[in-house]
Amino acid sequence: MSRLLFLFLLLGPGTAFAMDPTSSAPNRTSSPVQAHTAVTARFVLQVSEPTQAADPLIAQARDLEGWFQVRTQDRLELRVPVERVDALLSAAASMGRIVDRAVQRTDLTREMVEVEGQLRTRREGLQRYFEVLETADKTSVYAVQARVLRQINLIEELEGRLRVLKHRARYARVDITFRFRDRAAPVPTGDSPFDWLNTLNVQEVREGLRDARPSWKTRGFRLQDAPEGFSTWRRARRFRAASPDGVLLRARGVKHDPRASVAFWREAVRERMLAAGYRVLRDEGVQIGRLEGGRLELQAPLGDEDWTYQITFLPLGRRIAILEAAGEVGRFEGRRDAIEEMIQALDL
Question: Does 3.40.630.30 match the CATH number of domain 195-344?
């Protein structure tokens, strides 16, 4: 039995990598160095139920091919692929209000290049020790074996370090601290410089059914029949409707002043509703016929219930059509399709 085979059997199959000339040979070709960056995101999320906020975020992390690392009553540590951090932050923002946020990026490229270089050097050295063993006499073979063992230990340490660096570059660390948010209802008015934005509030939609002659009117467009399952008031160009389980609708037109793009109004509406205390669930563009508009879907606590409040708006030249729908979250979901059919059937 050769000394090389003897040493291989002594050390076990775990050293097989050292016998592979392709793994021990240094990379002599010059190629661009790939950049590697570790990402750590830390933010404070203000939610109404901190103890229940973690489960949806863990589910979202798993959907993004990540997992949770640490979970306590008021803190969550997640891992997600670096390229999907923004998607996780967007999901968190839809669940509550981010009141503090910091994203740190650390360049690992130089450290990884150094470790890989050290690994090549150690593997080359190990290969030379194996070559020496082929011709070593009995008095020196034990000294060479000791050096081989030390070289293997150093290689394993470097490989472990490299795995950690690659893991950090592949998966971002996201630390979330939960902060309690009072369930106070959103403020009914605002201080926006655009008057029609200050009229957007779920309380007025709910209370508007009791007003015999509300100040707003449906101008610049017409609605077809009310959605299936809704009862409608059509008095003096004022459109209001309600379902038996309390989902409410309101349609009205306001003066388009100042004239602005849909993108401008989407941002303005979002900022106004966030400032008023609403939670943004969805912010998207809509198209009805040839007209483009915007839609925000919000959530707000009203008493012991959480309500969904949907705002759809379409600029119509000199006027803006506004369609509002509101109801307790579960009941609203049951009426969603009927509401959307009514909106798509607008006569503009």
Answer: no
Q: What percent of the chain stands above pLDDT 90?
A: 45
Q: Calculate the dihedral angle through the C-alpha atoms of 194, 336, 230, 235, rounding to the nearest 10 degrees.
A: 20
The dihedrals phi and psi of 5, each to the nearest 5 degrees, come to -65, -40
Sheet holding 238-242, edge to edge: 231-235, 238-242, 248-255, 319-328, 305-315, 291-302, 279-288
pLDDT digits (tens, 9 = 90+) for 76-134: 999 999 999 999 988 888 887 787 889 999 999 999 999 999 999 999 988 888 888 77
Of 343, 299, 302, 303, which is closest to residue 324 (Cα–Cα)?
343
Give the Cβ contact number of residue 136 at 10 Å. Answer: 17
In the structure encoding, which two tokens stand for residue 330, read together? Answer: 């579960």
Exposure string over 192-205, b if 16+ CB within 10 A, otherwise e: bebebbebbbbbbb
The answer to whether residues 192 and 274 touch, using CB atoms and an 8 Å cutoff, is no
Least confident residue range of 11-15, 103-107, 208-212? 11-15
- Which run of H or E residues covers position 330? helix 329-344
CATH code 3.40.1000.10 region(s) in the chain: 195-344
Q: Cis bond leading into 227, ω under 30°? A: no
Six-digit token string for 304: 């012991």
Verdict on whether the full-model pTM lies above 0.90: no
Lowest-pLDDT range, 2-6, 96-100, 149-153, 172-176? 2-6
**Phi, psi torsion values for 246, nearest 5 degrees:** 90, 20
Bridge partners (DSSP) listed for residue 250: 240, 324
